[in-house]
Fold this sequence. Notes:
alpha/beta; 10 strands; disordered N terminus; EC 1.1.1.157
Amino acid sequence: MSQTATTAFRGNPFVNHAKGREPVAIKTVGIIGAGQMGNGIAHVVALAGYNVLLHDISRERVETALATMNGNMSRQVHRGKITEEDRDSALARIRYAPAVDAFNDADLVIEAATEDEDVKRKILIALCPQLKPHTLIGSNTSSISITRLAAVTDRPEQFIGLHFMNPVPVMELVEMIRGIATDESTFHTARHFVETLNKTVTVAEDFPAFIVNRILLPMVNEAVYTLYEGVGSVEAIDLAMRLGARHPMGPLQLADFIGLDTCLSVMQVLYEGLADTKYRPCPLLVKYVEAGWLGRKTQRGFYDYRGEVPVPTR
Ligand SMILES: NC(=O)c1ccc[n+]([C@@H]2O[C@H](COP(=O)([O-])OP(=O)(O)OC[C@H]3O[C@@H](n4cnc5c(N)ncnc54)[C@H](O)[C@@H]3O)[C@@H](O)[C@H]2O)c1
């Protein structure tokens, strides 16, 4: 094999080397979805000095997110991690965006809405006509194809997966995922942006659930099967994995923390995307989601959080 052929063979087939666009200077960041992840992303982005536009389906949800951020930043002040002035100026940099037309000012928009491909597609289709040509779009999806989401936009070259971890202010990692069309300028600008948030990047290819959730969520799903089959109770399973495998929290506690709807969506993406029955979502996980018992965010999941201490629901 010639040297040229070897080099070509070793080149990353998933990288699009398109050139020619100037790097984007990011000053204002739009965030769509003000839930667990959207409020965490807004928190770290505003503390890093960027202007933030925050949108959700209602003003009330954004106000809840602002109250959560205020509480979380105040805890950081109490622990000496930031000053009161840092908190106040960060909160002052976050503006409510009543509709996507407010994102006309944004240099980067991060989509952090519900893990449902239809929801995300509709958001992206409505968003694109409002954006300036230079604006980049990132999706915080846990599992959905970046290439497919990018394909509904008018700018697949400027679209990238930015998978923050929960809780965003605490977790150091951001997984970055290029779609098939993502260009190098977008990747480098997004990487630099993530690094200004004091996060560490790992790069994953665009396959279902990327790296972290490809490994983590089947483990969580297996814990639900273990419960479903009566191998152990909620407490027994979580205790076993905390003390027996040194996990910082049990897998069912973790599922409640992630959100059971998100866990189920990720398993469905893995099951359908990889066409392998080993990823089939546990029927008990489906039942909890159907009941609206989605974990911490609805006060009930594998544990009931409505009292002083969490109580197992099975
Ligand atoms: N929960 C986790 O641990 C975690 C970790 C990493 C990434 N993610 C991903 O982040 C995204 C959000 O997850 P989350 O845990 O914050 O969920 P969440 O349920 O806490 O929040 C989702 C928010 O999206 C809003 N939303 C729904 N449709 C919308 C629309 N059309 N326009 C604007 N807002 C809309 C909802 O009102 C809600 O406030 C998902 O893609 C999820 O997979 C979640």
